[in-house]
Structure formats: structure tokens, C-alpha cells
Amino acid sequence: MTDAVASIPEETAPVPLLEPRDGLPPVVSDDAALAAVVEAFRGGTGPVAVDAERASGYRYGQRAYLIQLRRQGAGTALIDPIACPDLTGLNAALADTEWVVHAATQDLPCLFEVGMHPGVLFDTELAGRLAGFPRVGLGPMTENVLGLSLAKEHSAVDWSTRPLPEPWLRYAALDVEVLVDLRDALEAELDRQGKLDWAHQEFAALAAAPRPAPRVDPWRRTSQLHKVRRRRQLAAVREMWLTRDRIARERDVSPGRVLADAAIVNAALAMPLNAPALVAVQGFGPRVNRRQLDQWLAAIERAREIPEAALPPATAPHDGPPPPRAWAEKDPVAAARLSGARAAVTALAERHHLPAENLIAPDLVRRVSWEPPAEQDPVAIGAALRALGARAWQTELVGPVLAEAFREAAA
């Protein structure tokens, strides 16, 4: 296996990419304009670059507020998915076309919502990871691979703004302008490293993945939740989180703009009995109006009234092995297997110049280490990993090193 591609030499300054080569197209915001885009892209050739802009931190949910596409022969299109929420016709026009996306796991969910789903995919971020690039954001990848620099100052703006400012639209158009060239260069690099088949397997798995299921107990993702140990206080976190989520959804704002996670945790730890006590909790204060205080106090009161048997468990329910920190006590042999497996996977990933988590998902390593197959040989371990969702290239590489690690742990 050859080394990963090097960055462009430091003395070679990247060329700023400032203007779309075909000019800035108008935003598509009605059925007639959308129909014209569909026909243009149906008649284009080669892969289609696809990107989406969300309003994370501003609006509720992760819906797209701008969708950008570019294809040879069709040019660039900027589509307002709020004005044109049904893009199934465009999806059908691209049914047999390879999509080039950067960080597909971020963009595909919001594209699903408007009826778009790739049949064939090339993810330039994942390609960069497999090729061993240390920085895989679109800006660094474009500089290191193509010698071009993209301005990224508009990446975190409120894309729900209407009308969208022209500098933001120019930024969005330039993002898809580089994707196909980046794809071609990364494909050549992956082929040079002998990893192109690995990438194709990963891309196929991404394209075939179903829409993510709703999270179980999403309130448990509240930051700083580890500070809350008592079950009734956890119930207070849950009740306040659900109240905040309802308010955010009704207002169509980011939940963090309604109330910070830290304030929820602080209130759950304090369990205030009245408005003055709640105002004294960090994260609340005189700017919180009486109606809002009443909502949070009502949530805390609901937590107080929950019967002991109905309180949420101290830890989230899960269907996998116990937390690794508990393995040494519960099953020392399994703990030894996991320790050896992690070291073996890390070493193997370093030899192949890619992150360990892209070589094999850490959760799969934990699961097969906790409950290994009866025959702990490379074939059986590889089959166990495949049953858990690993790709063929991963099992071929990882199966033998895990088998060796398990043998050493049992010795």
C-alpha cells in the first residue's frame, strides 16, 4: 500500500475561486423554472454535483433551504426547496446519474425530505478519509488536491433568510463547481493506492442506507447530562427537553435559541420550587419572561410527580454489549479481547493510512469482541462482522487481525 497523496507544496499558493465560471444563475423558485432545470439536467452528461445548505442553529430541524447542482451540459442550478418542496421530478431525471456529494451523511437526510435520493454516489469527504488526508473539509480538500481556495465565511449563516444575499449564493454555487474535478482527482488517487474498490463499496452502502430511524430518548443527548445522576433529576431534564422541543417546533427556531442545554441541566440539578429560585439558576434570569418561567417550572413539577417506578433509568437502554469500562469486572476475557482488538485495528489502520473508524466501525469491534463466533478464525470473525453491517473489504482486512488478537487474549 502506497502512502497517501501529499498536500500541494507550501510555496505554491492556492488560486482563489471567486466567481462561478458561467456566472451566477437565478434562484429557482417556481414550477416553470424548476421544469426547465429538470430538462436541462436530464440532458446533461457525466456525474452531477449536489450540495445543500441548512439553517442549523437558526431553525428547527435539518431541512434544506438551498440545493445546488451542477452537471456538464446543464450548468449550475440553485433551487429554493421551500418554494419548490417536491423535487421527485428532478430525482427521476437523475435516476441513472452518479451524484458527487461532500459529506453525504450530512446532506442526504434533508435531500430525502424533498424527494431526492442517489442511486449511485461518490462522497468526496469519505474518499479523502480513505485516501489518508488529515483534513477532509471541502475547503482543505479543494486546496490540497486542486490548488484552489474556496471562501468559507458563509458556511454558518442563516440560510432560511429570504431573499438570499448574492454573496451567499455565489459561495453556494462555487461549492458545486469544484466537486466533479475533486471527485476525478480523488478517484485517481484511490486507484493509485489500491483503495478504489473499498471506496465503491462504501459509497454503495451509503446510497443504499435507509432513512435514519428516529432516535430513542433523544433528550439523553443533552450536553453535560453526565452531571445528572439521580433519576428524578433525569426526569426533569426529559420534561424540560420535551417542553423546549415543542416550543422550538412551534416557533421554527433552533432549540438552543429557546433554552441552552446547560440551563436545562442546571435547573434539573437545582429542582427549584418557584420562579425566584428558577431565576437564580444559571442560564435563566430577568430576561426570561413570566410565561416562559411558568413553562419550565411546570416541566420540573411534572418530574416531581412521576411515580418512582416510572422514572427514567439512570442509563440509556441499549441492545449491545455493556460499556467497555465495565468489561474487566463482567468478563475479563472479553476485556482482553477488546484491548487487543483495538490495538490491532489501530495498527492496521496506520499501515493503510486511513482513520481506524473508517477501517471498521468501533461498535462492530466491541460487539464481536463481546460475543465472538464459536470458531474464532478469520473466516468466522469476518462473517460475524458482515452480519453486523461491515463491508467485504473491511472483513477481509480486519478478520485476520482480530482472529490473531483473540488468540493472544485467550493464551
**Major β-sheet profile:** 6 strands, mixed
**Count of helical regions:** 19
Helix content: 40-55%
Assign an overall shape. flat
Please mark out the parts with pLDDT under 50 across 5 or more consecutive residues, or reply none.
1-10
Helix-strand pattern, N to C? EEHEEEHEHEHHEHHHHHHHHHHHHHH
Q: Main sheet: which strands, in order across?
A: 2-5-4-3-6-7
Distance between the termini: 31 Å
Determine the mean pLDDT.
Answer: 94
SSE class: alpha/beta
How many β-strand runs?
A: 8
Number of domains: 3
The CATH topology annotation of the largest domain reads as Nucleotidyltransferase, domain 5
The fraction of residues assigned to DSSP E strands is 5-15%
Supply the CATH class of the largest domain: Alpha Beta
Question: Radius of gyration, rounded?
Answer: 25 Å
CATH architecture of the largest domain: 2-Layer Sandwich
CATH superfamily of the largest domain: Ribonuclease H-like superfamily/Ribonuclease H
GO biological process, one term: nucleobase-containing compound metabolic process
Keywords: Hydrolase
Region (Disordered): 1-22
Protein name: Putative ribonuclease D
Summarize this structure as a short list of keywords or feature phrases.
411 residues; alpha/beta; Nucleotidyltransferase, domain 5; DNA polymerase, domain 1; six-stranded mixed beta sheet; two-stranded parallel sheet; 8 strands; 50% helix; disordered N terminus; nucleotide binding; Putative ribonuclease D; RNase_D-like
